[in-house]
Every structure is written in C-alpha cells, then in structure tokens.
C-alpha cells in the first residue's frame, strides 16, 4: 500500500559521488540508474516516490544531475536542473550534501560557502545533512580522525548541528555521517553479506534523521532561484 509522503529530500553533489546509489540504498531497491562513469547518469532531476520497508511513510527522493559531466558544461547542467525544479518540486524538507572524503578542493569549498550564504543560521543547520562518501576502507581510528577534521573544517562546521548527547553530557554532531556506497558489482561475493550489514548500520541514522517532520522550504521562493547556484561552482574532488 502506498504510504503518504512526509518529506522531500534533494540529493546534491558532484558527478560520481554516489547520489543515485545512495537513493537505492535508502529505498532498499534499485530505483535510480547508476554507473561508474565521469558522465552524469542523472539528467536534470529524477524524482522517486519510495516506501522503504522499515518506514511507515513514504518519501520523495530527488536525484540531481552532477557537475563535472564530461558531456555538458556546468551552465547547461544548471539550466536543466533549474527548469526541472520549477516544474517538478513543490517543497524541499532536506538537502543531502554529498562530498568525497579527502582534502577539500578550492572549488568544493567555494560551492559549499555559496550554499551557506543562501541559508540563515537556523535553515542551514536544520535543512542540510552532510554525508561524506568513499569511507569504506577506513578503520575506527582513521574514521575518528576524519570526523575530527570535518568538524574542524572552517566551511563544513558552519553546516553542522550540535545537540546534547542522549548518553552523556557531551554535545555531538547530528547532521553528519560517513559511508562507503560500494557498487555491488565491485564487491567480492564472499564479502557481500558483511558489506550489506555494514551498509545497514550506515543507513539507519540517516533514515531516522530525514524522517523527522520539518517545515519545508518552498522551491518557488528564494530556495529555487538561489540554491541552484551551487551547481555552477561545485566540482569533483
């Protein structure tokens, strides 16, 4: 039975960061087309109404075309996405900003700073979730070190939301996580069960976060006309 859609989630990031693959992981089925290529598989916007088995409600997942597409200029990509937003998306509850692990390039930093300027303090910390990919080979210490680097980064920390921990008196970041998003075709069959279990551990906190009810940003207001500028300057890591 089709569940009511409670939240619209827009996935943004460069070509190859794993936006479409993440949508499939969250939906628990292959709804978005994926490929290992420097050309963006998603053209303009692709919208998917999904009803994950472990959720009592549905979502509208909005996959966006990545930049650094070898077949199109960034300006053309922006035009496609802008037109699609006007026609397809009525509200946005959360933006998932996906970046690759590793040192941030100047282009990526400029892109994120541009995004930040379009939100006020409350908006950017309530509506943006930062997901770092390409973390599948990191062990506990390396992952902790990466998390500390992200939290200390002069740009990313402007997006991160701190809340008091439910298990201690410390504060913790609640809109940041790390994942690997491996292509199943690239995983040894003997390791597949372990990879699935690992991905489920990564999936749950993100699903819980984007399931929270929150007032939507209307695309026909400043969100639609200004946030799209992010795609003009976002480049691959």
TrEMBL record:
CDD domains: Ras_like_GTPase. InterPro entries: G_AIG1 (IPR006703), GIMA/IAN/Toc (IPR045058), P-loop_NTPase (IPR027417). It comes from the Eukaryota. Residues 8-162 form the AIG1-type G domain. One of its GO terms (molecular function) is GTP binding. The keyword tRNA-binding does not apply. Signal peptide: none annotated. Keywords: GTP-binding, Nucleotide-binding. This is AIG1-type G domain-containing protein. It comes from Heterostelium pallidum (strain ATCC 26659 / Pp 5 / PN500) (Cellular slime mold).
């Amino acid at each position: 039975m089709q569940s009511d859609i409670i939240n619209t989630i827009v996935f943004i990031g460069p070509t190859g960061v794993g936006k479409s693959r993440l949508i499939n992981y969250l939906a628990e089925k292959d709804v978005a087309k994926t490929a290992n290529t420097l050309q963006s598989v998603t053209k303009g916007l692709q919208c998917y109404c999904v009803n994950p088995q472990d959720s009592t409600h549905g979502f509208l997942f909005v996959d966006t075309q990545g930049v650094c597409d070898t077949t199109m200029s960034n300006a053309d990509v922006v035009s496609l996405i802008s037109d699609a937003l006007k026609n397809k998306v009525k509200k946005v509850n959360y933006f998932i900003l996906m970046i690759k692990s590793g040192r941030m390039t100047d282009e990526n930093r400029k892109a994120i700073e541009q995004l930040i300027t379009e939100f006020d303090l409350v908006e950017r910390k309530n509506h943006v979730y930062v997901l770092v990919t390409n973390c599948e080979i990191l062990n506990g210490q390396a992952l902790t070190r990466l998390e500390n680097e992200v939290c200390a980064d002069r740009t990313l920390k402007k997006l991160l939301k701190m809340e008091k921990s439910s298990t201690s008196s410390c504060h913790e970041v609640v809109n940041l996580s790390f994942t690997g998003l491996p292509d199943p075709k690239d995983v040894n069959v003997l390791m597949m069960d372990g990879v699935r279990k690992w991905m489920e551990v990564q999936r749950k906190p993100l699903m819980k976060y984007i399931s929270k009810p929150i007032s939507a940003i209307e695309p026909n207001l400043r969100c639609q006309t200004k946030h799209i500028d992010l795609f003009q300057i976002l480049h691959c890591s």
